[in-house]
Specification:
It is built from ten helices and no strands. By secondary structure, the chain is mainly α.
Length: 211
């Protein structure tokens, strides 16, 4: 069993334990943040396709966060024009239909070309379609447009940081997440989650061997 299957089994098992242990839903965000950064670190230090062994790791194309939907809705809101297209893209991506996810977001942008949420989601969709390892010029442009359309909203910065973690740019991710935290209201329900992720990211960066 290679590293990818081992990682998937661990994440599924962790989720099952949360359900069986009846962990309160507000705590899922903390656990999800830890799992997401753990998966990112596992991928970043890994070597694809190696057989299962204690020292092996496997690159994943998307950090796994069991509370991703709740966090997405807390940051962006629900039941808006943008929401329907973003949720559709999420479902298509999880099903492996990454081109369809890109097309879904592009369809939404035709109706609302100023949507920071959809431009940001387009960057994420393009990254997933490209394999999740390198930010292409198209993905960078989409993220930049999302930030330009809502420079004071934490959402574009947070998801740009997520993309940078996937591609191994941890310092860049930290800068993006600090910008997201700075733009979060003091009473925002997701503010503690963002701060927790920054702490975990610092720990992951501290584990990175110096060249």
């Amino acid at each position: 069993m290679n590293g990818w299957l081992i990682l998937a089994a661990l994440l599924i098992g962790s989720f099952a334990l949360l359900v069986v242990a009846r962990v309160s839903r507000p705590l899922w965000g903390f656990v999800g943040a830890a799992l997401m950064l753990g998966a990112a670190g596992y991928a970043w230090q890994g070597q694809p396709e190696l057989p299962g062994a204690p020292r092996t790791a496997q690159r994943v194309t998307e950090p796994v966060d069991i509370a991703a939907d709740d966090l997405r809705d807390a940051i962006w809101g629900r039941f808006t024009y943008d929401y329907a297209y973003a949720v559709a893209a999420d479902g298509l991506t999880r099903a492996g239909a990454t081109q369809a996810a890109v097309n879904a977001v592009l369809g939404g942008l035709q109706g609302n070309p100023q949507s920071a949420r959809l431009w940001t989601r387009l960057g994420t969709a393009i990254l997933a379609h490209d394999g999740g390892r390198v930010l292409s010029p198209a993905a960078k442009l989409a993220f930049a447009q999302g930030i330009a359309n809502a420079p004071d909203h934490p959402g574009p910065y947070f998801y740009y940081g997520m993309a940078l973690i996937q591609t191994g740019d941890l310092p860049g991710a930290k800068r993006a997440w600090l910008a997201a935290l700075k733009r979060s209201r003091p009473d925002a329900p997701y503010r503690v989650d963002l701060a927790t992720r920054l702490v975990l990211l610092d720990r992951l960066m501290a584990m990175r061997p110096t060249p």
